[in-house]
Amino acid sequence: MSIVALFHSIGDHIPILKKEKFGQPDPEGIIASFHYRGTCMLIFGFTLLVTCTEWISGTDSGFIECLHTGPVDFINSYCYIMGTFSVRDKYVGPNNKIGYHVAETGVGPYDSRNKANINHKAYYQWVPFMLFLQGVMFYIPHIIYKTFEGGKIKNYIDGLQRWVLDNNERSDKEHELAKNVVENIGQLKGWCLQLVAARTLYLVNVVGQILFTDCFLGWEFSTYGASVLSLLELDDEERIDPMSKVFPRVTKCTFWKYGHSGTIQTHDAECILPINIINEKIFVFLWFWFIVLTVITLINFIFDMILIFSVRGRAIIIKRKLAIGPRKNNLKIDVNLIVQSLDFGVWRLFYALLKNIDALSFREFCEYLTEELQKKCECPDDDNDSCLKLKDMEDSNENLNRTSPPGGEFLTLDEIGDGNYVKAPSPTGSTHKESSI
Question: 83 in a domain, yes or no?
Answer without folding.
Answer: yes
